[in-house]
Amino acid sequence: MKYTHLPHTDIEVSKICLGTMTWGNQNTEAEGHEQMDYALDQGINFFDTAELYPIPAHPDRHSLTEKIIGTWFKKNGNRDKVILASKIAGKADFTKFIRTTGFTRASIIEALEGSLKRLQTDYIDLYQLHWPERNTNYFGQRGYTHQVTDYWEDNIHQVLETLRDLMREGKIRHVGISNETPWGTMRFLEESKVHASLPRTITIQNPYSLLNRLFEVGLAEISMRENIGLLSYSPLGFGVLSGKYLGDRLPEGSRIALFPNYKRYSSDTAVKATQKYYELAQEHNISLAQMALAYVNTRPFLTSNIIGATTMKQLKENIGSIDITLTSEIMEGIEKIHNEHPNPAP
Q1: Is the terminal CB of the chain with fewer CB neighbours within 10 Å at N or C?
Q2: Architecture of domain 3-239+290-324
């Protein structure tokens, strides 16, 4: 395994992070435990979860993923071996069953206390805001369109005050953001620069893959100049970049077969780009999945690459990407395809 540090800390984390959002829906508790056992044995010490998981969000499965991680901690007594990240859900129609009050002080405290109880731990190493409260472009929206009905009042200072107080209590070690824009990222950083008592945002968890490199447009410069690390999610685009859906295939039990509305990475242009990437991988005797993950691993702004799997075979292949070195020919081929089909799946 290879390791990096959470920015502005001495905390060492594996460059591959274990994603967990299928546990409690597509994966059982026993399967989740098996994945964590294997990942830890392979040197992965960084796990990412959320109060919302498993996905898709549903009242009957609310926060089952955190509970599965909690029973694993209790069974093995190895909380000290894991750098644990979790998230508070944002405001949305599909999260009304969790709460409707956004990131108020009471909401953040309620969310954190619930996560701590389910995870059976006294602290979370990295606590993240799952997505912004304001109307902006995330979750597949390519561009920003201002809405005159958006009455959001900038409460970022107050949010950071609450997180600071929870850090002082020892319940959170560091804070991060997720699904953020360049404007939002700089607002969080601005507050901690102007007000020294407020915690600095150290990571941003956003989508990044061969099919979606929009992070490079505005956020990569911020990441490099401000030292805020990317935690890349969906590096395989819901499994699209494994190639298993090519040729109009729809494998039984696959994510898109189970949840047909998950089409974010399956547009006609995305399929064409995926086919090109598949042919490039075949030409160099490497699996498309490992090529796609290995590419993300090369990015200078990356802190950790969040992989997810529903089978042990997938998990082993995904973790194995850390040992893949892409040749200059492969890298040139990737850039050629990207220039022909730039960011087909925002």
Answers
A1: N
A2: Alpha-Beta Barrel (3.20)
